[in-house]
Specification:
Layout (H helix, E strand, L loop, with lengths): L1 H16 L14 E5 L8 H16 L3 E5 L5 H5 L11 H5 L13 E2 L5 E3 L6 H8 L8 H4 L10 E5 L6 H9 L2 E6 L3 H20 L5 E7 L7 H15 L12 H9 L3 H4 L4 H18 L1
Parallel strand pairs: 1-5, 1-6, 2-4, 2-5, 6-7
Antiparallel strand pairs: 3-4
The chain binds adenosine-5'-triphosphate and magnesium ion.
Adenosine-5'-triphosphate binds next to helix 2 and helix 10.
Length: 289
């Protein structure tokens, strides 16, 4: 009965498999996928995704793809002067009825050799709703990375500031989650929400997922009391995953984002550049195992 069913499915779907779907050659890499996620907005997710990805290329010599699943498209805005023309819409890959499309179809190269990105795509907002109606909606990004992963060492995914379908897709595709958290009580609450979602995903959808670390961002060294209080609170609750590297508040980082350049191009001698370089070194060590 089961084999009858399977041959029936093959017959029904035969036409579909004979269409002119592009076939992508497999590469020789096997990427580690890092989702940069937080339940709260404005905690430094995009700043971290962009500068970590660039630092992994520049200082660790890796080949990196930076995927923006946030409809706000801030990854592109943050490095638009370094992005070469080309690429397409990620939403077209994620919402394709037939499936079988690859993210590598729509990537664009950048001036940083070895760093590719997915261009900004406001239609991802509509894709978020459309995905909600699809069977297997949580696995669409994971499936669109199967061959793409063989062309990169690391794939960094910048998530929107909520735990909706696009973030869930990123977490299901991820090997690791990096959780930026700024020193504010609201951000600390957001960590709880994200860790709850990650454990549900680990139990039901992606047993492979692990937490890379909780990264304190926008740390103002002058505000010693607040920093100590927040760090102590995070140590108590999440000591095992709290990263020793932290990102200080640094105007060059926000100016770089406004100028459309990564921090290493905008101001390589800044504290921001040094902090993201240190983060890349630490992350490289962690993903090597
Ligand atoms: N370490 C830092 N020092 C100074 N400014 C920073 C730092 N990190 C981020 N910023 C600034 O804070 C703002 C929010 O940062 P970012 O866009 O990275 O956050 P986000 O979590 O991606 O936001 P969203 O939730 O909207 O996606 C931006 O203006 C950015 O330039
Ligand atoms: Mg962002």
């Amino acid at each position: 009965m089961r084999s009858l069913l399977k041959s029936g499915i093959r017959r029904i779907t035969r036409d579909d498999s004979s269409t002119d779907k592009p076939v992508f050659p497999r590469g020789s890499h096997q990427a580690t996928v890092i989702a940069v996620a937080a339940a709260k907005g404005g905690v430094g997710k995009t700043t971290t995704a962009v500068n970590l990805a660039s630092a992994l290329v520049r200082t660790q010599g890796l080949k990196v793809l930076l995927i923006d699943v946030d409809p706000q498209g801030h990854v592109y805005t943050a490095i638009k002067k370094q992005v070469h023309p080309g690429g397409g819409a990620l939403s077209s890959v994620l919402t394709d009825e037939g499936g079988g499309r690859e993210v590598m179809e729509i990537t664009a190269e950048t001036a940083v050799e070895g760093l590719h990105i997915t261009p900004c795509d406001p239609r991802l907002a509509g894709a978020e709703d459309l995905l909600g109606t699809r069977l297997g909606k949580e696995f669409i990004l994971r499936d669109a990375l199967v061959t793409t992963k063989t062309h990169y060492d690391v794939i960094v995914v910048d998530c929107p500031p909520n735990l909706g379908n696009l973030t869930i897709n990123a977490l299901v595709a991820a090997d690791f989650v990096l959780m930026p958290c700024d020193p504010s009580p609201l951000a600390v609450n957001g960590v709880d929400a994200l860790i709850g979602t990650i454990s549900t995903i680990a139990n039901r959808l992606n047993p492979n997922i692990d937490i890379l670390g909780l990264l304190m961002t926008r740390v103002d060294k002058r505000n010693v009391k607040l920093n100590q209080a927040v760090r102590a609170q995070l140590e108590t609750a999440y000591g095992e995953v709290l990263l020793p590297v932290e990102i200080g508040i640094n105007n060059s980082l926000s100016q770089a984002q406004m100028s459309g350049l990564d921090i290493f191009e905008f101001d390589p001698k800044s504290r921001g550049a040094a902090h993201y370089e240190a983060l890349a070194e630490h992350v490289f060590g962690l993903i090597q195992g």
